[in-house]
Structures are given as C-alpha cells and as structure tokens.
Design brief:
It is a single chain. By secondary structure, the chain is mainly beta. The chain has one helix spanning about 165-175; strands at about 1-5, 20-25, 35-40, 50-55, 65-75, 80-85, 90, 100, 110-115, 120-125, 135-145, 150-160, 180, 190, 200-205, 210-215, 220-225, 230-240, 240-250. The protein is globular. Mean pLDDT is about 85; it is low at about 5-15.
C-alpha cells in the first residue's frame, strides 16, 4: 500500500478561516498537509487502508478540537472508520454521509489544544470490501464551540482500483451540476440538478444528525423554514451511493 500526497483539491462552499492548525504526517513531519489531497494506493482485497495525521496548534488560541468526516465520493459497498481520541466501529458507506467523530454515532469527542500543542492519534481507515474503485473523503477540524468554522482540512483518496480509473471518478464528481439556491436560505431552497426524482436528498447538521430526508422528490423546492439558523450539509444519493455533498446556510 502506497501513500502519495498531491496538491489537487476539490473546493466545497464553506466558512473557512485562514488555517489555525498545521497537519503533518507523523512518519514524515515537515510539510503542512492542510488543503491537500492525500492518495493511498491499494487493491480491492486490502482489508485496511489508512492515513495518519498529527495536528499542531499554530495559533494563539486554545481550542476544544473536534473532527468531522464527510463522504464526498465513496465506493458503494465499502466501510470506513475515523479515529480521533478513540476508534469507533466501522460503518457502511452511505450510512452516515457526514459524521462528527465520537465513541459512537451522534457523540462528539474533543482534544484540548493550547498554542503549540500537537495532537496525535488521528487515523482515517478505509476497508474496500473487495470493491474495485476509488473513495474520496473530506476531513475537517473545528472548535467545538464553533462547528461552522473549519480550522484545518484535507482530502483522503483511497484508490483500490484494478479495472477502473480514479481520475474518471473524481472528474465525474466535479462535473455533476448540483446547485442550491438561495444560499443563505430562509424559508425554502431550490435543488438544481437534472432528473431530481432519481435522487434521495438529506439535510444533515454540523454534528452529523440527519434533519430532513426526502426520496424521489417531484418538486425542486424544499421547505427549510423549520430549520434553525446555522450551517447544514445537503447530500444527494442515488441507488445507495452518495453522489455529492454541499454546504447550506440557513439565515431567517
């Protein structure tokens, strides 16, 4: 299994401050891995592929750091687990498109981080489950008191392909024309994607809890008047596969 660090990144709409944290490979410390894509090469028969990261607080602030994992474009039939403080059980692809890492689902585990501190123990695990393909995740760190502000992030791409092209997989993701407007939204949003009825739509809060789920929508308009002000994720899936996730701001 081979790990490659690339400078390729996919931009998601987000509220992001200038990096307050430095991300490094603990086995090869040096370069800041914030906002890059880390490639891990393997085969469908691999039982585990992983990325290790250490997090250095380069700011003058003290944080209660939490970590969020988003399935951006993950091969159907695979499993994943993300360790932060502790290692939760593996989950199936698509079961939790957005997940704040904790000992169990819908719990949050944090690390106290003072200026200059280094937090170790982050591991991104991916199990191909004999599936031929590629899987792309986004990992973000934030302070528990401000989950909408990303302090550092990176993409992890696990390439367990023999007969498929990872480049094609990423291009497919980038070329899907899925728009949400208005954004910020008040009472309703329009989901602009071709053949909307073929997709399932979920709105997820910053802690990974699914707030709204709609299947086979016939109207492109979605009522969000009951959502509290804040930042949410809108995920679309098709035939059990997560297709794309975008951020949505609600402001009444």
């Amino acid at each position: 299994m081979k790990t490659i660090i690339t400078l390729f990144s996919i931009i998601l709409t987000a509220i992001t401050f200038q990096a307050q944290l430095k991300l490094i490979d603990p086995s090869h410390p040096g370069s800041d891995l914030n906002n890059v894509t880390i490639d891990v090469s393997g085969t469908p028969s691999d039982t585990e592929m992983e990325i290790a990261i250490s997090v250095i607080n380069t700011s003058n602030n003290t944080y209660s750091l939490a970590c969020r994992r988003t399935e951006v474009d993950v091969q159907q039939g695979t499993k994943n687990s993300t360790c932060w403080v502790t290692c939760p059980p593996y989950v199936n692809q698509g079961a939790y498109p957005v997940l704040v890492i904790g000992g169990q689902v819908n719990t949050v585990l944090t690390v106290a981080s003072s200026p200059g501190d280094t937090a170790t123990g982050f591991l991104a695990h991916h199990d191909p489950q004999n599936q031929d393909g590629c899987s792309l995740y986004l990992y973000e760190w934030f302070d528990e008191s401000a989950p909408s502000v990303t302090l550092a992030s990176f993409y992890g791409r696990f390439m367990h392909n023999v007969n498929t092209s990872c480049a094609a997989s990423l291009n497919d993701y980038r070329n899907i024309d899925f728009k949400i407007y208005p954004n910020p939204a008040n009472n309703e949003v329009v989901l602009d994607i071709e053949n909307l009825a073929q997709y399932n739509v979920s709105i997820i809060d910053l802690l990974g809890k699914t707030i709204i789920t709609k299947n086979n929508l016939m109207s492109s308009k979605l009522d969000v008047s009951n959502l509290n002000n804040g930042v949410y994720f809108v995920s679309i899936s098709k035939q059990g596969k997560l297709i794309k996730t975008e951020k949505l701001i609600i402001k009444h």
